[in-house]
Design goal:
Two copies of one chain form a homodimer. By secondary structure, chain A is of the alpha/beta class. In chain A, 37% of the residues lie in helices and 18% in strands. Chain A starts with 5 loop residues before the first helix and ends in a 5-residue tail after the last strand.
Amino acid sequence: MGALHAGHLSLVDASRAENSRTVVSIFVNPLQFGPQEDFERYPRDLEGDLAALAGHGVDAAFAPRREEVYPPGDATRVRVEGIGEILEGAFRPGHFEGVATVVSKLFWAVRPDRAYFGRKDAQQVAVIVRMAADLGTGIEVRACPIVREPDGLALSSRNRYLDAAHRTSALVLYRALRRANDAYLAGTRDPSALREALAAELVTESLVVPDYAEVVDPDDFTKPGRLAVLAVSVGDTRLIDNHLLGEPL
Amino acid sequence: MGALHAGHLSLVDASRAENSRTVVSIFVNPLQFGPQEDFERYPRDLEGDLAALAGHGVDAAFAPRREEVYPPGDATRVRVEGIGEILEGAFRPGHFEGVATVVSKLFWAVRPDRAYFGRKDAQQVAVIVRMAADLGTGIEVRACPIVREPDGLALSSRNRYLDAAHRTSALVLYRALRRANDAYLAGTRDPSALREALAAELVTESLVVPDYAEVVDPDDFTKPGRLAVLAVSVGDTRLIDNHLLGEPL
């Protein structure tokens, strides 16, 4: 969606290392925003983005106008049942339908061999992996590691919404994941105990309102597993983060 | 869906005339049948189909197993709002979602330049035209003329369900279209008068129960237009037919 940061650019570098040509799409997709969400104010910086992409050796950027993606009379929607309807999908109704629809269009536009997505949006990755397989696209979906600030905050275009106090409060996401990870590394496997470790840390920040804090299977997000997923509001800003428990953090 | 008749083979011939390679899919798609519909008994004749296709110079037939099209855990659905939800879509809930989903998969499997469909399923054509455009597939959708028996019955794999009495009754579809076409050619343009011409003929057959008889715009099926569309049950067999009023019939 543009407003590129080092997380996005790590996807570019990963693609460049594995493919002869790399194409980047930049499109703030209205269909994946709810009516009360931040579509209008979502950060946009096409000039800065194109400069950054040129610096990383991208072959082409695809920055379509809205009407190119949603032509007059557009009526086709792609949804992924199950994984697309829980957690983020439940808190943001229609969000993953918007994601699956636009990614389906981008896949047709580019017909790539591989497509790169960030693990920061872990559930989005799972939705797209499912869709790419179900539709028989033959596209290999690659998930790349979360890139964090030195203090642990996961990079997100939405971080620029945060004032100083909220920026400090937002670190509770990282602390919660650390706390659950420490418990996991110390031998805790009980899902409710791991969930409790997340929740116990989140309540330490009064400016933070949790949407959910779960420990789920990273592929289907319903069965218990070792992926800790968090969503919170920090003031008006909604942030998500996640970590595969047991991995370095 | 196989059980190929001369209507299907006319699509093959149309493709052969315009393209260097022609691929035919044969797949009775469970997703487009309702729970009370005829999926189990739908005619299947793979051997006969392959012989007919070889005779028409097809380069490849794609007859996937169910699991190839719907892999374990399959959860992705494609729908076309509006056009996919009215008339056939209203009488057969989920039908066009099943069609759009499977055609989307077939498009990815084959990535054709052009795709050929019969006008017998006029609303299906409109759904697929919309989907192909919305998703930016770049695939040109060609709609080919209805092929009829000498007595006017439109070819359909379901015609083989009809016993002699029902076969005779089914001709009322053709007579209704002729009656509306004659009215159109005589100058009638009022949609309700044209609809009335269809309905007045349908009631002449006691074995025939109409689902709908409308005169609509051939692209969006909501605005009035000059496409007469019919759906009826003849005994246990559901049949559809249509005609663009003013054209020879």
